[in-house]
Every structure is written in structure tokens, then in C-alpha cells.
Amino acid sequence: MPFRLCAFDRLERLARAAVVSVLGRVPPLLGYTLLHNEHIRIDVVAANLSRRKQIWIDIFGTLFFLLPIAVYMMWSSWPIFMNAWTAARFRAAPAA
Questions:
Q1: Which CA distances in Å does 81 have to 19, 25, 75, 85, 88?
Q2: Which of helix, strand or coil describes residue 48?
Q3: Looking at the chain, which terminus has fewer C-beta neighbours within 10 angstroms, N or C?
């Protein structure tokens, strides 16, 4: 029985680390790529369009893809964050 609990604990820690890694690294990078116009878009179609239409494609992609995914990631990870925050707040300090 202790082995199963230990394995589950490791799996839970790995899942939390993945969430923290994604939330800690991806949003700043999204802003950087948008600022420098290096984000992925449908270049095959957009290459033949005017600059104005390319801007509208960027606005559409940001409003209907990037922002909803970012909001969903923050909303779905909030309980995990709060559990970790309260656990760290009430955890006993290690002996010096």
C-alpha cells in the first residue's frame, strides 16, 4: 500500500510541475511572439492577402483562439494553485 501512495504522490507532483511549467513559461512567450510578429498563423493563405486582411486574421485568431485558451488554462489550474498555495502556507517549517 505505501508504494501505491508514493507512486500517486509522484504522479501528482509531476502533474503539478507540468501545470506550473506551462503557466509560468507560455504566457510571457505568447506576448513576446505577438510583439515581434513571429507567431504561427496560416501563412499559406495570408501570404496572398493584403496587409489589412492579415491584421484581421491576427485579431480573429487572438480573440477566438489565444485568449479563450489562456483564460481556460488559468481557470482550470486555479484550484491546483490554491491547493498548493494553502499547503505551502500552512506547512510546518523544516527544522534548521
A1: 9, 15, 10, 6, 11
A2: coil
A3: C
pTM: 0.49
CA–CA separation, 40 and 65 (whole Å): 12
> Which parts of the chain sit beneath pLDDT 70?
1-9, 20-30, 39-41, 89-96
Domain-by-domain residue ranges, the chain?
A: 40-75
Residue positions counted in the chain: 96
For residue 12 the three cell numbers come to: 501528482
CA distance 31 to 75: 19
Contact call for residues 42 and 57 (beta carbons, < 8 A): yes
Residue with cell 501528482: 12
Cα–Cα distance, 40 to 66 (Å, whole number): 11
Could you tell me which of 35, 17, 22 has the C-alpha nearest to residue 69?
22
